Amino acid sequence: xxxxxxxxxxxxxxxxxxxxxxxxRQLQRHAGLFSLWMMGVGAVIAGEYSGWNIGFSQGGFxxxxxxxxxxxxxYICLCCSIGEMSAALPHTGGAYSFSRTALGPWGGFxxxxxxxxxxxxxxxxxxxxxSSYLAAIFGTPExxxxxxxxxxxxxMLAMSLRGLELSMRVVIYVTVAAIAVLLFFFLVAxxxxxxxxxxxxxxxxxxxxxxxxxxxxxxxxxxFTGVMLSLPFAVYMFLAVEQLPLTAEEAKNPTRDMPRAxxxxxxxxxxxxxxxxxxxxxxxxxxxxxLVR
Length: 293
What we know:
Elements: E1 2-4, E2 13-15, H1 19-23, H2 33-42, H3 56-88, H4 94-103, H5 105-138, H6 145-162, H7 164-189, H8 195-199, E3 202-205, E4 208-211, H9 223-234, H10 254-281
Antiparallel strand pairs: 1-2, 3-4
Helix pairs in contact: 2-7, 2-10, 3-9, 3-10, 4-5, 5-6, 7-10
């Protein structure tokens, strides 16, 4: 039998079900603290490799750095908030579930719609950058990029259809490997560092921006406007960590582990973001297939 929410919320009805309804739809709990931590980092780690670097042309090193600090602070606050909510509401749904509980059906619908847009566009952007890397590695022309896109989606879809546990295991392995690659990059970049020459090599010009061959430019060549223009690109370093509460029903102890995993994830991403920004900007750059410095 259906009945209206709160005695008659327009367009929304609820159905009374027994406990067996939820038991038949419950997922297996196999994710501990480390798994959740790696999945939180893994949701974002692709953004540490590409996307954020376009912000250099918008704000210079200083502008992008300030933008990353602003976005990082906002995401730390967000993770603290949803960490509390994930402990109080440890079930699948993430921000949609939190908003629906706090704001009602239409609040949940609006939040869910925004999340849906995010999680449709974010994989598309990641797939584009992944194909650019693969094209550079294998020397394929730009006309072949759509084949890389389709191939990537086929692989991801096949793993998802194979089973959630397999997908989560692959994400954890890939995330650990991606972190190791970044740390290795930081290490091998040390002998080639020249911060003032390479990181401060952007200046404002009538055309927008220009490169200074000898560096020694301003920290904020475009002023505070450059910081604001860099914000969308700094988001790449943190975007999607908020999806971690969606795995609440796969967590062994979501009430305890989910808040900890969120905090560990955002702190790990913040450290990696600062490292990537500094080391990438402070070494000689070489144009890459489809990527922008």
